[in-house]
Amino acid sequence: MAVVVMKFGGTSVANVDRIKNVARHVKREFAAGNKVAVVLSAMAGTTNQLVEWVREISPLYDAREYDAVVASGEQVTAGLLAIALQAEGIPARSWQGWQIPIETDAAHGAARIAEIDGSHLRERIDTGEVAVVTGFQGIEPETGRIATLGRGGSDTSAAAVAVAIKADVCDIYTDVDGVYTTDPRIVPLARRIPKISYEEMLEMASLGSKVLQTRSVELAMVYGLRLRVLSSFAEPDSLPPVEIGNLENIGTTVCSEDEIVETQVVSGIAYAKDEAKVTILKLEDKPGVAARIFGPLSKAAINVDMIVQNVTPDGAHTDMTFTVQAAELPRALEVIDKVKQDLGNFEVKSSDDVVKISIIGIGMRSHAGVAAKMFQTLSDKGINILAISTSEIKVSVLINADYAELAVRALHEVYGLDAK
Ligand code: ADP
Ligand code: ASP
Ligand code: MG
Questions:
Q1: CB 265 within 8 A of CB 365
Q2: Nearest ligand to the C-alpha atom of residue 153
């Protein structure tokens, strides 16, 4: 017997037939004697529609009301799956975030889970009842209001519930059968990665591979939770039920680095289209200038990612380029405009026509020349690099958005990731 969390994303619960299909996946685990908690997303497209309605009514909306609206999609799918399971003769009930409760902080729209007392949920699933939990939502205990976890947040709900009920595994069912070397929709030659380390998955997710929400990987890593990515589109009876000690022959297992025998220099390539670039030209080159620009940005809670600074030929001035999330660009420009009044004359240019491409691999720690190969490959394709950032296990470059696919495909090939 294993305790299993099964999470199903939007395309996996997109309509009544898909929900019935999910019930068959759950039935397979139930019939094998496993204890199951299911975590669900809203039907594909529902959350987008809800967000759109909120923005249509007022672009300056109250974030608590936004959460009241956008959390509703998950309530529909959770109730429907509980009914579908009952129709299959499986005892089941739905649980909304506040009923468990899943407690969050007060950052409505992008809340973090603070605590889940999983004891009650665990008692109920120990009796053989399947718990169907609404993903993406929790409750802010001070005000008792619904809070959502940021887009893609059901993955995080699933990992957090798995930790709270001490599950043996957290299976994320989606529309691909695992984590691939890059987005298989962009590169048809991408390969499934049977096992990937938490560190690499964390970088992949945070650098744009939205197959898992970053925070879900962080939680799994901190708590040593075994996370798998599987396809809900596989025939339910074709997958083996969860059996502890025998989890690794399907999908992708996200696990600790020591469990991975063969490491690649580059394991995966990610891209993020939601970046924007700001360039400040002819800034006076003197101590404290960077602090006077990035201080106010940080105060305004704007995350700056890549930074490049060049001294201009006259030696007295400097040009500075940095990136922020595209959605934050208007606010960032507003902050810079205020700094200008204080720091004197400089020119500002911005563009959200950029994309960040990253190569990721723990093998980079012990190999030289990995970044140079990336730069050479892009140069051979005539692609200009606008900014660079690196860490121990990744190299990211910012390029013009028009070249995104060309760059990902070329890098995928050059690092030997293409399927044979
Ligand atoms: P869900 O609705 O199930 O949460 P998502 O759309 O959030 O699904 O995530 C699955 C999608 O992630 C896939 O359809 C795929 O296009 C995309 N994706 C991006 N990068 C990768 C990758 N490296 N491996 C697999 N899928 C990826
Ligand atoms: N339904 C939410 C979203 O679309 C949460 C999720 O799917 O994970 O972002
Ligand atoms: Mg998702």
A1: no
A2: 2
* Cis peptide upstream of residue 101 (ω within 30 degrees of 0): yes
CA–CA separation, 74 and 13 (whole Å): 10
Q: Which atom of ligand 1 is nearest to the CA of 182?
A: 23
CB 232 within 8 A of CB 44: no
Which tokens hold the place of 272? 């993020």
Nearest-angstrom CA–CA distance, 360 and 201: 9
Whether the Cβ atoms of residue 375 and residue 310 lie closer than 8 Å to each other: no
Structure tokens belonging to residue 323: 């990136």
Q: Is the CB of 34 under 6 A from ligand 1?
A: no
Distance CA 353, CA 279 (A): 13
Over residues 41-60, the mean pLDDT reads 96
Q: Which of 154, 156, 174, when mutated, tests ligand 2's pocket best, judged by the most ligand atoms within 8 Å of its CB?
A: 154
Do residues 396 and 307 lie in contact, with contact meaning Cβ atoms separated by under 8 Å?
A: no
Q: How many CB atoms lie within 10 A of CB 210?
A: 14
- For the chain, state the CA radius of gyration: 23
User: Ligand 3 centroid to 164 CA: how many Å?
Assistant: 21
The verdict on whether omega for the bond into residue 141 sits within 30 degrees of 0, i.e. cis, is no
User: Is the Cα torsion angle 211, 215, 216, 220 positive or negative in sign?
Assistant: positive
Ligand nearest to the CA of 209: 1
Question: Which pLDDT tens digit goes with each residue over 108-145?
Answer: 999 999 999 999 999 999 999 999 999 999 999 999 99
53, 23 in Cβ contact below 8 A? no
Pocket of ligand 2, candidates 8, 13, 41: which has the most ligand atoms within 8 Å of its Cβ, to mutate?
41
Q: What is the pLDDT of residue 264?
A: 83
Q: Give me the chain's average pLDDT, please.
A: 95
Q: pLDDT digits over 190-217, tens only?
A: 999 999 999 999 999 999 999 999 999 9
Q: How far, in Å, CA of 145 to CA of 63, rounded?
A: 11
Tokens 């939770």 appear where? 225
Whole-number Å distance between alpha carbons of 75 and 98: 12
> 3-state class of 282 per DSSP?
strand
